[in-house]
Amino acid sequence: MKRILTLLSATAALGFPATAQVYLDEPFAYADGQLSAVSGGAWVNHSGSTPLNVIGGAAFINQADQTSGLEDVNRGLTSGGSAFSIGPDGNENSSDNYLYAGFTVNFAALPGGQAGGATGSYFAHFKSSKANVFYTRLGANVTDAAPETFRLGLGSATWSATVAQFPEDLTLGVTYSIVTRLNLDTGASTLWVNPVDELSLSVDAKDTFAWSAGETVVSYALRQGTTGSSGSIDGPGQVYVDNLKVARTFAEANPTVIPEPGTWALLITGLAGITLWRRRA
User: Fold this and answer.
1) 72 lies in which domain range?
2) Does residue 208 share a domain with residue 185?
3) CA-CA distance, 152 to 225, in Å (whole number)?
4) What are the pLDDT digits (tens) for 62-117?
5) At a CB cut-off of 8 Å and minimum separation 6, what does 22 contact?
């Protein structure tokens, strides 16, 4: 018994990962249909009416719908089963207060309106407690991309033709892992594509923003761009979004990373090894 306790003490001294801080974990494991309906109200409408649907276990951003008023939806952040919001922490350290979103994307059609506009548009973002205010806007366009490819772009609080682009041409029909980061103190945003870790190639948005008094991030949102009836309004393309997480750390949000085993999993593994060792002794 003394040997077992000594080994357990040594194992504990290694230090286990901190309790996970995942505020949204969405695999879109719903039946096909309007996301706000098939999710049982977990996702709620905040704009438009033409449905944003689940198709084949992924949320589908449908630029091809030629009507105006496509639906935008959001899902609230939670912690411990209760609604959660987060904003600036008020201390002098501007590099210790981040919020990450990670998910996979697969594009079925290129960004741009019917007329082939290059501006594209954004399709995912953090949603503020302040009405109609969106941060860390992730989108896509064909500016600077080779023919039949596209690029992802990022704006902290705006989207324009000169939005920051991730410097890689992407291909239709390929699944990419995406991570975005919002610095909750400075209003700066960062984008990674297929990252291994936080040191992987990234791009920073060209703009930042300042918070209003009492303002926080309360949810994550999906937005359907629209070509509209005129054919001149740009959209983000047709996009399948899946495996969405919002978290406090890069590793927890990154869909390409297998999470580290939890404390109890490590303990169980250790105890199993102890038992086997005792039997052999």
Assistant:
1) 21-259
2) yes
3) 14
4) 887 666 688 999 999 999 999 999 999 988 888 999 999 999 999 999 987 544 55
5) 245, 246, 247, 252, 253
